[in-house]
Design brief:
The protein has three domains: 161 residues, Rossmann fold, CATH 3.40.50.170; 98 residues, Formyl transferase, C-terminal domain (Methionyl-tRNA Fmet Formyltransferase, Chain A, domain 2, Roll), CATH 3.10.25; 209 residues, 2-enoyl-CoA Hydratase, Chain A, domain 1 (Alpha-Beta Complex). Helices cover 39% and strands 21% of the residues. The chain is built from 21 helices and 22 strands. The longest helix has 26 residues. Bound molecules: coenzyme A (COA).
Length: 570
């Protein structure tokens, strides 16, 4: 079928559906939901058999749903309606939740039901649930609904007869999210923070200034102060007392500007934060109880596992330097294999665009950040004492994909989406030694195509293309078990020494053919043009990315019906 995805943005769920439906043999095109007239034009140009709306912020115009069957993905159980579905589900501590695919009609979220899927709620942020459970359930439900539509004989169930326990709920307001520090216990505070994360956060105050709080974490042992007081800091996070304990706040949006951007808490309140006690962790070992720890190391069966759970997968200059220190330390351990585990939701999304945007000189900070991430990539490439694995439990984008490729092996969880290209960020050339790492995996033409097409890739496709080495279990816990089993087999293998020797020989050969330093210098020459050159595209793209400016057009590589050669189907 010809399917048009009508969506607010090409977000992770839309990317996943795009890739899954394409892999199922359908022809896809995308239009951003910018205005009624633009959506109508897309319908006229593409003449889709079906419109699927994975992520909308407003109702589908009548002119569209009267002429096309439009299937809406709603992140709620049957009968649930309204724009804050997941927010309410988290705040009200629902045990099970779901995704419903319903047909667009006059009343929002009240159309007939084509498919539904449910899942068990995990204690996690809204964004994390969306990227994992909701995305998995939405994929299953949309594929089922599309199949049902294609069969031509399925009759969707009217909402009134669907018998769901969901109900219409209003937009969640900041007054519903507000934390009462004198009353709310730690679990309630964390639930409120989770329901607001990543967007819009919880409106509150820090050091007397109004701000939005994001990225909350439990603390098991540190106590003190009055509820609401900031009682400590660690790296980028601040610790606040609650009535029965304390919570870490990782990120905040502060400031009086029109569009304050989300920043690490200790940076956003740098002056005041410097005066509170520091609770540094002793080294890189994973703490035994709940706390906030962005880099954590553990060891088993001759394998070192290095976790780096950086918020949103963004890796700033300091984070890259700290991770490099942790990685170098991990190589000194009596192990044979180091597995780079990334974070649960993202392995890495490359340089930290928010920190760059907030810097006095974004060009200088871009430059410092790319050097720091390159240093890390180089250390991974040059590791001679260990075999290295990048294990990707979550999505990976831009420079993060090539940082992963710097390891000897890349294993991905089935279901994740990779975006191994840079051009979407204002034609950024990219570094992280991609010019060294990519062509041997996918060929020269393959590398050019990947960079040019700028499309997301499912883990399965990445395996077929040669970009990754294995696609493992889709379920996160099963994925971790499989990674540990494979890594320990690698460390234990009779051929370990031979593999390490082959790796050293290959590196020496590569270095003789063209030194790593030369790849880096060539990439950075191009990057300097992006940062300091006369074309400001990268700075403009970053400005809009971090502020989430509404889209004003759909890029041509997504809207195939707007390509010059497109012929309107008969
Ligand atoms: N720096 C800072 N923040 C980043 C980031 C980066 N490199 N990559 C993602 N984020 C943030 C987003 O702003 C968003 O923030 P929010 O919590 O305030 O909503 C969050 O991470 C999730 O990103 P989103 O775009 O909603 O996730 P997605 O899964 O839909 O898309 C990507 C994933 C990778 C395609 C997309 O985030 C992206 O293009 N990131 C930029 C990658 C890049 O160009 N890096 C720099 C070059 S190395």
């Amino acid at each position: 079928m010809r399917i048009l995805l009508l969506t607010h943005a090409f977000n992770s769920l839309t990317q996943r559906l795009f890739a899954e439906l394409t892999a199922s043999g359908h022809e896809l095109s995308i239009e951003f939901d910018i205005a009624d007239s633009v959506a109508e034009e897309a319908g006229d140009l593409y003449r889709p058999d079906l419109i699927v709306a994975p992520y909308l912020r407003r109702a589908i115009p009548e002119s569209i749903w009267r002429t096309h069957v439009c299937l809406i993905v709603h992140p709620g159980i049957v009968g649930d309606r309204g724009p804050s579905a997941l927010d309410w589900a988290i705040q009200e501590d629902e045990r099970d939740w779901g995704v419903t695919v319903l047909q667009a009609e006059a009343e929002m979220d009240a159309g007939s039901i084509w498919a539904e899927e449910t899942f068990v709620m995990r204690r996690a942020t809204k964004a994390s649930l969306y990227r994992n459970e909701v995305t998995e359930a939405a994929c299953r439900a949309v594929l089922k609904a599309v199949e049902r539509f294609a069969s031509g004989n399925f009759v969707p169930t009217p909402l009134a007869r669907a018998n769901g326990r969901g109900r219409l709920r209003p937009l969640m307001k900041q007054s519903d999210r507000a934390i009462d520090w004198q009353r709310d216990d730690t679990a309630t505070v964390l639930r409120k923070l989770a329901a607001g994360d990543g967007v819009p956060g919880v409106a509150d105050h820090l050091f007397g200034e109004s701000c939005h709080l994001h990225d909350g974490h439990a603390e098991a042992t540190i106590r003190g102060g009055q509820p609401g007081d900031v009682i400590g800091r660690r790296e980028t996070a601040l610790l606040r007392a609650t009535v029965d304990g304390a919570v870490w706040i990782g990120h905040v949006r502060c400031g009086k500007g029109d569009l304050p951007i989300k920043l690490p808490a200790t940076l956003a309140c740098a002056e005041q934060a410097s005066g509170v006690p520091e609770f540094a962790l002793n080294g890189w070992w994973a703490a035994s109880g709940p706390t906030w720890q962005d880099i954590a190391y553990r060891e088993a069966d001759g394998v070192g596992f290095l976790h780096f759970d950086f918020y949103n997968g963004a890796m700033g200059t300091q984070q890259c330097r700290r991770l490099l220190a942790a990685y170098r330390w991990a190589l000194t351990r009596p192990t044979r294999v180091v597995v780079l585990m990334g974070g649960a939701d993202f392995w890495s999304n490359g340089i930290h665009l928010n920190l760059i945007e907030a810097a006095v000189s974004p060009a200088d900070e871009s430059s410092a950040n790319i050097e720091a991430i390159d240093d890390l990539a180089e250390a991974i490439i040059r590791s001679e004492s260990h075999l290295t694995v990048a294990a990707l439990p979550g999505n990976c984008g831009a420079g993060g994909c090539f940082l992963a490729r710097a390891a000897d092996l890349v294993w991905a969880r089935s279901g994740i989406v990779l975006n191994p290209h840079y051009k979407n960020m204002g034609n950024l050339y990219g570094s992280e030694y991609w010019t060294y790492l990519l062509p041997p995996r996918v060929g020269e033409e393959g590398a050019r195509a990947l960079m040019r097409h700028r499309l997301p890739m499912l883990a399965g496709e990445a395996l077929t293309s040669g970009f990754i080495d294995a696609c493992l279990a889709p379920e996160p816990a099963a994925f971790r078990v499989e990674v540990a089993r494979r890594a320990s087999a690698l460390a234990d293998g009779d051929d370990f020494a031979a593999k390490l020797a082959a790796k050293r020989a290959r590196r020496a050969q590569d270095e003789a053919a063209k030194p790593l330093a030369q790849y880096r210098a060539e990439e950075l020459t191009q990057m300097r043009r992006n940062f300091y050159g006369f074309d400001p595209s990268y700075h403009v793209a970053r400005y809009h990315f971090v502020r989430k400016s509404p889209q004003s057009w759909t890029p041509r590589h997504l809207a195939r019906h707007r390509n010059p050669g497109w012929k309107v189907p008969a």
